[in-house]
Design a protein that fits this description.
The chain is α/β, with parallel strands linked by helices and about 375 residues long. Helix content is about 45%, strand content about 15%. The chain has two domains: about 220 residues, Rossmann fold, CATH 3.40.50; about 100 residues, 3-Layer(aba) Sandwich (Rossmann fold), CATH 3.40.50.
Amino acid sequence: MTQAALSERRAWNAQAIRRIEADITRTSDTHLINHAIEGTPGITLYFKDESSHPTGSLKHRLARSLFLYALCNDWIGPDTTVIEASSGSTAVSEAYFARLLGLRFIAVVPRTVAAAKIALIRFHGGEIHYVDSPGEVYEASARLAEETGGHYMDQFTYAERATDWRGNNNIAESIFQQMAREEHPIPAWVVCGAGTGGTSATIGRYLRYRRVDTQLCVADPETSIFHRHFADRSITSLGACKSSIIEGIGRPRHEPSFIPDVIDRMDAISDARSIAAMRVISARLGRPVGGSTGTNIWACARLISDMAARGESGSVVTILCDGGERYTDTCFCDDWLAERNIDWQPHAKALESFFATGALHEVCPEA
């Protein structure tokens, strides 16, 4: 590359970073919602509402960080095709930033991804490349990047390092700033899920950096590898197995961005419980939330029930990952759930009782 070409690329790179920073400036922080629990007046549950990002999910933060990381490493230029392996939401957000920079974007997704997410990827100018199973996304993405001369963003490798965990308006810093004037400003627990592991790594590192007593709980689908790897580091892959219907969290293999050592507790949550919690919280908030939020909520209910039984007070913060509008044809469709033998109603009754009494009595055996 000639010196003139290098200078031209450097100028484009600087302009691309400026555009993303301008987008950050235009976007106000997401809301922190105080949600009282009738049965535990001394314990308050908070939702960090990431659905209010321009692309409607927590993955907006990740996509922004991944683009800045790639730009500052000079992996992306003015003619680069960007490729990503995704279960939908990250691809929606990356399509948004690719269009902001005038770049072609291809999302590699399983055929099972909710139709509403596919529509959003296309709405933001992205293209779709389907694979038959979640485990095929990695190889297909790398192959497409080679064929197009493009860049495979690879969220599952770079998520934990693309975000500055010390601050710079990451989600952990935002939570603690917003909690500063609450009755219990230092949460007893922060609860999140893990898709790449980037969010849990950022929060876990930040908690240690700030030297606070807050503990981190990661809520994981029962069929995911992450909670198994957390319990036994030698377990790194599940091979061929039934995958969760909860999109965006849980994986069949241990991803490089998942850092178990910064996590204090992991809870495995069944799909039926996640759907029940999604439905109950949607009704309580008066608007639909996604399935991964339901997974988080069930873990919160377990933690708060235990706190109440010990006579403790405090706060618990979790993440409202995305809106339920993306799942009208899946998690909010009773026929779709029935076809998959998801009997969520008994769990919904148990969770409603929890909000009334502060005690979670889980339905066993699994309904």
